[in-house]
Amino acid sequence: MCESIFELNMQDDGIAVITIDLPGEAQNVLKPEFGEQVGEILEKLSDDISVKGVIIRSGKAGSFIAGADITVLNSVDTAEEAEEIAKTGQRLFTQLEKFKVPIVAAIDGACLGGGLELALACHGRIASDSSKTKLGLPEVQLGLLPGSGGTQRLPRLVGIPSALDMMLTGKQLFPKQAKKLGLVDEIVPAANLMKAATKRLHDLRKDRSMKKPWTYYLSLAGIKELLLEANPLGRNLVFNQARKTVDSKTKGNYPAPHKIIECVEKGYSQGFDAGLAVEAKNFGQLVVTPEAKALISIFFATTELKKDKGVEADVEAAKVDKVGVLGGGLMGSGIAYVSVDKAGKQVRVKDVSSKGINGALNYSWKIISKKMKRRIISPSDARNTMSYLTGSTDYKGFKDCDMIIEAVFEDLELKHQMVKDVEDNCAEKTIFATNTSSIPISKIAEGAKRPEQVVGLHYFSPVEKMPLLEIIKTEKTADWVIATCVALGKQQGKTPIVVNDGAGFYVNRILAPYVNEAGILLSEGVAIETLDKAMVKAGFPVGPITLLDEVGIDVATKVAPILQDAFGDRMETPKAFSKLLDDDRKGRKNNRGFYQYPAKGKKKQVDESVYQVLGVEPGKEVSSAEIAERGMLLMANEAARCLDEGIIRSARDGDVGAIFGIGFPPFHGGPFRYMDKRGIATIVDRLEHYQNLYGERFKPAKVLVKMKENQESFY
Amino acid sequence: MSETAAGKRARAKQDRVAIVSGLRTPFAKQATHFRGINAIELGKMVVNELMVRSELDPKLIERVIFGQVVILPEAPNIAREIVLGTPMNVHTDAYSVSRACATSFQTVASLADSISLGDVSIGIAGGADSSSVVPIGVSRKLQLALVDLQKAKTVGQKLSIIKGLRFKDLLPVPPAIKEYSTGMTMGENAEQMARDRGITREEQDALAHRSHTLAAQAWEEGKLDDEVMTAYAEPYTKEPLHRDNIVRFDSTLEGYAKLRPAFDRKYGTLTAANSTPLSDGASAVLMMKESQAKALGYEPQGYIKSYAFAAIEATHDMLMGPSYATPMALKKAKMQLKDLDLIDMHEAFAAQTISNIQAFGSTEFAKEKLGQRTKIGDIDMDKFNVLGGSLAYGHPFAATGTRMITQTLRELKRRGGGVGLTTACAAGGLGAAMILEVE
């Protein structure tokens, strides 16, 4: 008998405890071969008449089961194979559900995906109150659905609307939220988990089930349930609404959400078993979709990046206790927040005015106090965190900073002054990181006493939401400095990619031709809405013109000439754009851009007067397919050059950077996977097609032409 | 001859208690900038900033001694709350003391004792008070009833307890302003001192005007910038506070004459303007053993030479503490009043300050009250409260002592060193005096 990861323990009180412990791993994951092992245990238990109940727990403190092992899916070629995997899981969990005595899951730590489906098949669920305890079905984020009965059991436990919300967004619930939904029966401190689980077993044996009392149906929630869920008409309403929401969010680019809704719907109209059959079938179909493959590839890429130190050399990241932030503007405030609340560092903000410091403090307080109001953290925790964030208008209290991140105005002279200030006022070990989005780091490092400690940390706005951190090294940047930045970035909750110095680094460099193309189309008379809608339909979170307004037209026009200088005509911006700045249009920040920004509640609308400023008459028709293709091809073409020139270390980093930094449609898996998917030959052909029509900016990158000849692909 | 030399050497070797640096928040009038911010938050604010500015490893701080006068019932040990609520090291020991308006003289003295004894070598002392967040309680009757209700078993018993309450028993009760043991208010005490000594309204107003004028000047000359932090208060939407909002930057003598007496409405001479106002704020000092400070590369602001506390009659002339504590501290320092370069006296009321100035120069007072033949000494007004006093800055009770200590040390430094006295009266007939030296 091979070594089982399940340990069975019979207690004197007739309760069997099954402990799951995957050796050598930090988290438990479910693998197909475990089915047999569990089956054996259950068989053994069912023969034992002294068993009164079963508790399933994890042998790892702070981690229940993080999900199913998705590497299994890599070797799956057909939908039928995948369907069979789902059915195996379903059979096992049905066996659990129908077991002769009650089973309770004792959950401490992550209980996600297959882990939660297992817990759902149990008769009771007790969760610990630990901050590590999270429950959810995140399969949709991988383009999949919960394939082991989750689509059937979850709605029956928490109601259709809540179940759909959980499965369609993949959100993870805190213990308190899970208790409120009825997903778990009780929350207790981890040390009392077994006691509470035992008590729950006794209650279940005496059939003290937690059925809702009849008075519940007199409450608002009860009436709502009767109206919407307990009858086919009401259910139809719920499903139709869910489909509408899905369509408006996915633009039809992601198949999984509709499949999830179908599973739940069929489960109610045709019964539980029919629902399971649909679930397995849909799961099988989804596994082989290109969307799921792309999303899973991103998942693997980010998992790899989590283990990546950012440098080949065997260096240790320096310890960072205190971070100094220069500049209390939007970026500085955001960087201060993630450093203090996510990374738990002591942070000192410097700004020229106390108003700027107050603004930075307010920025963090707004986010932290929101968590406090939602009772995710206590008021004393909130204030304690805030005490790690202080500010000053001079360099008092900066000497012992391990790292300084400057986020001052984009001006080379000012940045040089910052380097000098830090050298004068901080320690020898202090790393100088610049959050520039346009100035090459080597230029900023010119004249630095310790250029090996100068590095770029390119954050994206809003810092607390955007997951990417672009770390830019120069030829001189020391390995330990990069490793330290990578470690800090991870602590700040970011996915860092390390890139080489060069105009626009990676993200802005591939973004520029894409935005420019929209600008060119606009100056040819294509309407602003048409452009934005085309890209949103293609899967970008916002359109390029909206992006310009959000980032700031003034910022964009500052970056553009730097790129044009470095890369020539292919980065040329439409000439009409300079007129925008003359008209004092900076974008959302001064409420003057391509769009009008009316007071709250109203939808933003295109500012028609902008056409006049640009000197164009809107009305030119270009299909959204062409608009999208032109933008994406240019972006991908430039990304290929970045890889070729060694700006990025790998196609993986390039894909992650584009998705997390720009919002490149995730279902394509990033620009490199997009090119691989369409075939390098097709990409080159399409680029040449547009090159003939619109000019040299579409000229395929040399590397692509070579890859076409050699019939190569990136992955 | 040789003995004296040996003694000198021994003294030189002896480690002094150094005050490395000091900081305070701006002081704000009751319910203005710090509305809703309690004393503990104020204490955290100032200690945290002091720590960050000192760039000292938190692990090295062995003890925090702090105090508040209006104690919050939910957290009486403010010192420990400060340690736990900031990036300080959890292993930093912390306790709290109360000595009314001289509280932070006591926290400094207690820490100095610990350092002299070799118990600790680095610590922080200070005080904080808020007049904007105060414990508002319930009436004595309601208090009794609530406790009785917990003990009552039957509904009947409970009802009879509730029946005994009247509507007025349910009204909230603000913190007492009367002293617990004497039943007198501080204003009444000061009014009595002014009355018995015949101190006029004009004299008092003139002192208040002097105080505000000197304080405003100190601010304008930037003398306080490095010892007063900018206060950023939750939710960080209000304009940050840079300076005390009590100091009158446009003080005119005529302005004071307009006010009506505040305590004795008929014949009184004390007004809101010649009494120190209720205020919010915090202050703290970082203290070390001299050798430790130097080993860490700090240049101390100054050293503690001596200190003394006195206790006197609490129903009559209660605020004369400085006149009793000062000669004791001078004696310990083996000095005379004329040896001092600066004198900083807490101005609770102009009347109290003037009463003490008179007593310092009175041989009669010395003979009768101190049992010494010579007077303490005439105060040279050019050395007295040269940057103004509590009448202008305000008086967040427990924060005043360390405000005065830091202010005096830095002023001595600006004058090229010397010796200064800081002294205060306190409720309950207490007095504090501390002599500081700067090289």
UniProtKB/TrEMBL annotation, chain A:
Broadest EC class assigned to this enzyme: lyase
Q: Please name the PROSITE patterns in this protein's record.
A: 3HCDH
Q: Could you tell me which residue ranges the 3-hydroxyacyl-CoA dehydrogenase C-terminal domain spans? A: 504-597
Q: Where is the 3-hydroxyacyl-CoA dehydrogenase NAD binding domain?
A: 322-501
Q: Which Pfam families match?
A: 3HCDH (PF00725), 3HCDH_N (PF02737), ECH_1 (PF00378)
Q: Which SUPFAM superfamilies match?
A: 6-phosphogluconate dehydrogenase C-terminal domain-like, ClpP/crotonase, NAD(P)-binding Rossmann-fold domains
Keywords in UniProt for this one? Answer: Cytoplasm, Fatty acid metabolism, Isomerase, Lipid degradation, Lipid metabolism, Lyase, Multifunctional enzyme, NAD, Oxidoreductase
Q: What is its EC number?
A: 4.2.1.17
Q: Which GO terms describe its molecular function?
A: (3S)-3-hydroxyacyl-CoA dehydrogenase (NAD+) activity; 3-hydroxybutyryl-CoA epimerase activity; enoyl-CoA hydratase activity
Tell me which domain of life the UniProt entry assigns to the organism this sequence originates from: Bacteria
The pathway is: Lipid metabolism; fatty acid beta-oxidation
The catalysed reaction is:
a (3S)-3-hydroxyacyl-CoA + NAD(+) = a 3-oxoacyl-CoA + NADH + H(+)
Which family does the record assign?
In the central section; belongs to the 3-hydroxyacyl-CoA dehydrogenase family.
UniProt-listed NCBIfam families:
FadJ, PRK11154.1
Q: What is this protein called?
A: enoyl-CoA hydratase
Which species does the entry assign this protein to?
Kangiella aquimarina
TrEMBL record, chain B:
Cleaved signal peptide residues:
none
What general EC class does the enzyme of this chain belong to? Answer: transferase
- The membrane-spanning stretches of this chain are none
Domain Thiolase N-terminal intervals: 17-291
Going by the UniProt record, its keywords in alphabetical order are: Acyltransferase, Cytoplasm, Fatty acid metabolism, Lipid degradation, Lipid metabolism, Transferase
Q: InterPro entries from the entry?
A: 3-ketoacyl-CoA_Thiolase, Ac-CoA_C-AcTrfase_FadI, Thiolase, Thiolase-like, Thiolase_acyl_enz_int_AS, Thiolase_AS, Thiolase_C, Thiolase_CS
Superkingdom: Bacteria
Record-annotated Thiolase C-terminal domain positions:
299-437
User: Which molecular function GO terms apply here?
Assistant: acetyl-CoA C-acyltransferase activity
- Enzyme Commission identifier(s): 2.3.1.16
Q: Does the keyword Cell inner membrane apply?
A: no
Q: Which Gene3D superfamilies match?
A: 3.40.47.10
Similarity remark: Belongs to the thiolase-like superfamily. Thiolase family.
Any idea what this protein is called? Acetyl-CoA C-acyltransferase FadI
Q: Which gene encodes it?
A: fadI
